[in-house]
């Protein structure tokens, strides 16, 4: 369940990248050294911890410098006894276009192990992974690069109720998710009250979610555009992802007085 929720969280934070008419703000809103840490609560219990960060790298793809983006999730406390999780997702993206070149994931959940690698060829609109070659309709992202790409877009023209979709590569294919823009809210966090923009994606009921479950995400309404909180109801109870710390931000956080 942790992997599923972390992936949905990353997809949602990246989903606004594909709204019609959105343009890039130009210079990246993040910098090397940025690190965001979160806790995932099941009800009132801290079940897991997650982090997203930007690291410096000497890697070169197609003779171009890249950013190394990393997302990690792990169970916490007593959850390690029942179902230990140590998951890591890496993405290498072009420093100018934010398009991914390489995505890898290393999944360790109890006795389950999975290691995948995918190479992106944007000009050819294809992704080559361990499981084969997959063709897309346009620019395609992995779950980590989608998040950073979306943060750099101008969403000032979005209207409440607007819906848009995104294409992303995950596991064994390219999928689509629809997202709705809800509006703006002030959210109470461990870092204070923060002005946020709120979104809600479509989710599929099944092993985790109820038939009428709603997933919401709040991102800062400032130049950083970082996710502050995510909340979803599941079959039994609810799960909340909360920002606990933010280091190395390029801009001041938009706290509300």
UniProtKB/TrEMBL annotation:
Organism: Daejeonella rubra
Name of a matching Pfam family: DUF3108
Keywords per UniProt: Signal
Signal peptide: 1-19
Protein's name in the database: DUF3108 domain-containing protein
InterPro entries reported in the protein's UniProt record: DUF3108 (IPR021457)
